[in-house]
Design goal:
Strand content: 5-15%
CATH class: Alpha Beta
Distance between the termini: 34 Å
Largest sheet: 3 strands, parallel
Structural class: mainly alpha
Number of strands: 5
CATH superfamily: 5'-nuclease
Helix content: 40-55%
CATH architecture: 3-Layer(aba) Sandwich
Length: 162
């Protein structure tokens, strides 16, 4: 089974549209560092069910071991993003789910394989978990999740929904 680490934005986005189960169906379980848990549940400003992580046993909260490494990134990234990359290195993760552009650049620099919310939706369609992506993209936008217009069109083109 793949070792998958997720950042807060993809989890929040999928929860907002009622599709968090996609992660379970694709990967069985996912790991989040405690910093992501704090961002989503403790300090979260999003209008979502605050118990959704505890209510989904496939999401495993894991503490990072190398607290010192956080100091290297905290000037330009959020705590959760930094901990995702540290945890990915510590666990030798197969993939990280990250949407933030700058965090994705850091992850690539660290040779961490990444995907994002759009990649998850494309993989879910390819796997037969969902039938269409467009309604989900529209739901994300309705829930105030920003999707660049070009990305929106590209995802629909890849999904053969144009």
């Amino acid at each position: 089974m793949l070792k998958v680490i997720a950042n807060s934005t993809p989890i929040i986005a999928l929860e907002k549209i009622g599709k968090l189960n996609i992660l379970k169906e694709l990967y069985g379980k996912i790991y989040i560092p405690y910093g992501v848990y704090e961002e989503v549940i403790i300090g979260g400003k999003e209008k979502i069910n605050n118990n959704f992580i505890q209510n989904n046993d496939f999401i495993i909260i894991k503490e990072i071991k190398n607290e010192e490494a956080k100091k290297l990134f905290l000037t330009s990234l959020h705590k959760g993003e930094v901990e995702v990359m540290i945890l990915a290195r510590e666990m030798e993760a197969d993939i990280c789910i990250i949407d933030d552009f700058l965090a994705r650049k850091y992850a690539k620099y660290l040779n961490i394989r990444i995907t994002g919310t759009m990649g998850i939706l494309l993989k879910a369609k390819e796997s037969g978990i969902i039938k269409e992506i467009k309604p989900l993209l529209d739901n994300l936008i309705e829930e105030h999740i920003y999707i660049d217009k070009k990305l929106y069109k590209d995802v629909l083109q890849i999904a053969k929904e144009q």
